[in-house]
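Order emerges. For instance:

***
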Amino acid sequence: MKRIKKTLGLVFAAFLIAAAAAGCGTKAEKAETGQEKDTSLSQALADARVSYLGPKGTYTEEATQYFFPRAAELIPEPTVLEAIVDLAEGRADYAVIPQENTIGGAVTEYVDALITEENIFVAGEIVIPISQTLMGVPGASLDDIELVCSHAQGIKQTSEWRKEHLPGADTREMDSTAAAASYVAETGDKTIAAIAAPGAADLYGLSVLAENVQITDANKTRFYVLSATAPEREGRTHAAFVADCEANLIDDIIVTIHETGLEFVTIHDRPEGSHLGAYRYIIETVNEDGITEKALKTIEDIPEVRCLGTFDVIEK
């Protein structure tokens, strides 16, 4: 029986890795606002103080405004860690962080920041389309560009376009796409361009040099909404778990989760940091009919597993 379970586990693991690489998952039901999709949070969302990866003009700000259209305060932070610290120390009620992109995959440093905080939970998820835009100072043209600045994800997502249209240009990673746009505006240098969200051009007084420079029009990013309070559990469609274990145990954990009736959305492995072979696995699951308390209890009875939260997903 043990051999059969391990074989099944390896099959499931292979499936999950392929799914993650393809950016697959269940199709989220669209809703006009986060409140309409998640009515139990409606009043809390309207009064919320929300920290997010700033500065203004990032895709994270767009996701935050979509989920919290009537928030009391939006707090842009220069790093994800600082946004999470705001939440942990009570300066914010929620935090919004990027989690995964269709092209760039998991944003691993942000996932690491989440899983190291044991009292932070996933309370929601937003999926938004990503339309990367190349922008420069007024008067610049593509022929002028020698350096392209963006967040690491923006650089990854535009690699093919840049190879064709800016083959000689160097790249520089910035803390965010908006930080790249701000830097270009501050330098006033026609040889430097930024890849950022379309709205950043108006915000920082830049000119659009090219639109939709990402590899595919299917480019999307998932963002987690984090809370310092464990959200309502039963009835949500999605659940996220972290498994802290040796690599040779993950297949049995995968089988146990599958046997509860939950389907897998994605799994990511992160080194635990204490010794070779020890990992933290981020596992996201779905049941469109609603996740039951029985399923959650079965999974949480596994010593190496803790629940990061149960939540619904909205897509813009």
